[in-house]
Amino acid sequence: MKKIKCFIAFLIVFSSSIWANDVKDGDIALNKKDYVTALEKYKIAASKNDVIGQIQVGNIYYFGLGLAQDYKEAFRWYALAAAQGFADAQYTLGVMYRDGQGVKQDYKEAIRLFSLAALQGQLNAQYNLGVLYDAGVGVALDHAEAVRWWRLAAAQGDAGAQFNLGVAYESGRGVAHDYKEAVRWWKLAAVKGYVDAQTNLGLAYSKGDGVALDHAEAVRWWRLAAAKGDAGAQFNLGNAHRRGLGVTQDYKEAVRWYALAASQNDELAQYNLGLAFSNGQGVEQDFKAAFRWYKAAAEQGLLSAHYSLAMMYGNGQGLQQDLIRAHMWFNLAAASGNSDSIKNRDLAASNMTPQQIELAKKMASECQARNFKNCD
Fold first, then answer.
1. What confidence tens digit (pLDDT) does each residue in 302-354 have?
2. Residues 48 and 94 in one domain
3. Any residues with CB less than 8 A from the CB of 283 and at least 6 apart, and which?
4. What is the Cα–Cα distance from 9 to 5, expressed in whole angstroms?
5. Which of 156, 175, 207 is the last residue of a domain?
6. Which of 83, 112, 127 represents a domain boundary (last residue)?
7. What is the domain extent for residue 363?
8. Could you give the number of structural domains in the chain?
9. pLDDT tens for residues 41-77?
10. Cα dist. 275→100, 217, 230, 269, 296 in Å?
């Protein structure tokens, strides 16, 4: 996943500017949270074309420090600093054009400003240029150009750019497919604590992609990401404990990790929790709880959850048997051409009236139109 960075010019607490005394006095006031005095001092420097003063006035308006937040006024002050070629100001204006803050959204202008800043080595501008080229937003889609900008940001140690380079090498987008190179970039980002890189590095070790197969090492990286709340890593730890890969098999521990991921709306974790409750693995068998978790996954469009709900309705597990709803969920699960879903749908139909079958089909159509929400 390529994440857009939204960092705005920093509130600078040091200065080597021409009007250093005014900026320094502003910094002192800012640290004391005396925003009125800080704004007054920064404006004195800014009125004399001091870029630091201009940036700081812009920051006060942008963040609404001691006054009402005002993107338009912030934009005006940042523009003055950007006109002097100040890279951080150019980057910040690019963010505002990209997000439509204080100005009409304009991706092409964002690209132009990011480019000016990036050519001066502005790290966040380089990263965001890569994201926009990779997505083809405001500029022609160009994965190779995205990689070029991420390399520049990665060379400055940016973990997000390093992660994105790993994804590029894994997928072969903008570069030749190379798992080893993907792992190398993910490691650089992962040791900096970049969660997505830690999760992907765990997956690489669990599959032996670009690195020797090592389930224990996979678990180590997933634990780091899971501790920071990453649902994917939590789900993977659940699988590791359920299967005994890299850890001692422990169904209760698997359920604990699935529950953490499921609480963040991870549909696969929700489905696996449903399986655990249905089979009584790591928890006491509870068909009502299984139904609840299957339903949560089904509402996110997971076809295997559609099938499981249909089986529960068809067999009357934890609820009253309902062939109409069983047919409806089998019909939805059969959308992928799954033979078991088709067979069981037709089996249910053999015990239904033509009117019931038509109702089930109508319910399935309405359920799909509602994106699988509120279908029961």
1. 999 999 999 999 999 989 999 999 999 999 999 888 899 999 999 999 999 99
2. no
3. 252, 255, 276, 277, 289
4. 12
5. 156
6. 83
7. 301-376
8. 3
9. 999 999 999 999 999 999 999 999 999 999 999 999 9
10. 46, 27, 22, 10, 13
